[in-house]
């Protein structure tokens, strides 16, 4: 099938490349000329394992192309996916739908023949109705359908998630559009991935509900971790003990410094605002968002406590800046609040991240960047593990201790075992473990 993907950011580029790999003819469109020029040169603007090879292969095979103008791509397409950004709106926290609605207007002007317009972006309930109204107003004669098809991609594992999904959610109001969407995802039938058909509004809410629930699981285990520290229990054992219950499940029960990234912070906030607007406040999610925000700075104070109650004039080494491993995404990363807290307390910060340091320079100031983990630790009064990149999981502890001015390690991801760290002579503090 012929597919146009409006937006060549994280969701659009991954989705477009995967659709092309299924055999569809895909054109990814983006208004940023620098991004399009880079993609046409074979340069990938984001870090996602396996994406560069996937894009290159499908460009070479002629199934994937990039353009700055959507008119021809939309005119030729049977399905047009809107995969533009929906950031939190400044001032009130609602999702900013400016780019979605602008895309709808441009699609309306360009489409030719029956077209399925698909919102891939995460959008509040009722957005599909407004997209349909906009297109109908501009093109009252047009044949089209508007469908919701939310994405459930984890950064760092997006290609695997797209090709082997738990489920595919299709919010369609008519059988014709449902048939088009079924054909687009037909290659996944071999994987027996369930395709869940529902109303458009239900599909829109499903995405927000999923992210809010996962954010709640993370926040729940983080608060249990705080209790474990006070009563002498082990949060990792608690997580295993409850995670083996099939009603709960083991995923997203890893205690740490709080959630971040491009989805959970903005999506929980947008859901809160939507619920308030419809007089159905979601108190649990409101609390989750507030607790998570407070937790990040609390992790900074945890580092201060590990250093004897003051970090003024001290150098703190920070390993890991991105909100999770295998991405260069710094959006709402816990490291931002942790480092800011340390700097506010008078510390000098040196940091290392294998992929995130360039992006970090846009959101952090007065941070020295190191060439590797040991260079980061050199002469530091404490080392903090913020993001659990694989390269940080098996550090040479003898070399690390020799590099540090003081053998203090604050492990916010519970990468190491307390008994081993103590045996090696470290002053070691982790999360939710005595």
From TrEMBL:
Residues 317-418 form the UDP-glucose/GDP-mannose dehydrogenase C-terminal domain. Pathway: Nucleotide-sugar biosynthesis; UDP-alpha-D-glucuronate biosynthesis; UDP-alpha-D-glucuronate from UDP-alpha-D-glucose: step 1/1. PROSITE patterns: PROKAR_LIPOPROTEIN (PS51257). Its EC number is 1.1.1.22. Pfam families: UDPG_MGDP_dh, UDPG_MGDP_dh_C, UDPG_MGDP_dh_N. It comes from the Bacteria. Keywords: NAD, Oxidoreductase. It catalyses: UDP-alpha-D-glucose + 2 NAD(+) + H2O = UDP-alpha-D-glucuronate + 2 NADH + 3 H(+). InterPro entries: 6-PGluconate_DH-like_C_sf (IPR008927), NAD(P)-bd_dom_sf (IPR036291), UDP-Glc/GDP-Man (IPR017476), UDP-Glc/GDP-Man_DH_C (IPR014027), UDP-Glc/GDP-Man_DH_C_sf (IPR036220), UDP-Glc/GDP-Man_DH_dimer (IPR014026), UDP-Glc/GDP-Man_DH_N (IPR001732), UDPglc_DH_bac (IPR028357). NCBIfam families: NDP-sugDHase. Belongs to the UDP-glucose/GDP-mannose dehydrogenase family. This is UDP-glucose 6-dehydrogenase.
